[in-house]
Amino acid sequence: xxxxxxxxxxxxxxxxxxxxxxxxxxxxxxxxxxxxxxxxxxxxxxxxxxxxxxxxxxxxxxxxxxxxxxxxxxxxxxxxxxxxxxxxxxxxxxxxxxxxxxxxxxxxxxxxxxxxxxxxxxxxxxxxxxxxxxxxxxxxxxxxxxxxxxxxxxxxxxxxxxxxxxxxxxxxxxxxxxxxxxxxxxxxxxxxxxxxxxxx
Length: 200
Description:
Helices cover 32% and strands 28% of the residues. With 200 residues, the chain is an alpha+beta fold. The chain has one domain: Sandwich (Immunoglobulin-like), CATH 2.60.40. Strands 5-3-2-1-8 form a five-stranded antiparallel beta sheet, covered by helices on one side. 29% of the residues are buried.
């Protein structure tokens, strides 16, 4: 019985892993606050962000919601890459002077946009030079590495805090297949433990 369950789980795990590998969309999230700014500030503003990076199709989708800012917005960017994860500051990685279509002059709002990461306009030229080795492909790779390492952050700049009123370091969200593999392994471990106890 245990052998059949183990083989079935292994087959399902392989299927899930192959489905996951065929669609390379990496998801990152963060909670934004003034306490995370460098230096920290007392802004009551809050926000959330989700970033989906489809490396197969070279698409970067940014969805954010924010409210309670002390000053009207002046710009929003993703900065990358800090020397230490979840701390410090870094230059702007994404387009300048702000995200295309980002709501400016407001203290609350939402934003959703998909960028083509093969276009030079998506990137800050300094980031392409400093981190990407002068190529867009290099910038994409460096940006993905920064996201994975927790050294990239979304920053909302306002009149109250021109250097950034609220920000949050983006963290990877485990892929659904990872959760599925963990869930599949649990019954196998439980069955093995049960069987071992029965033999004692």
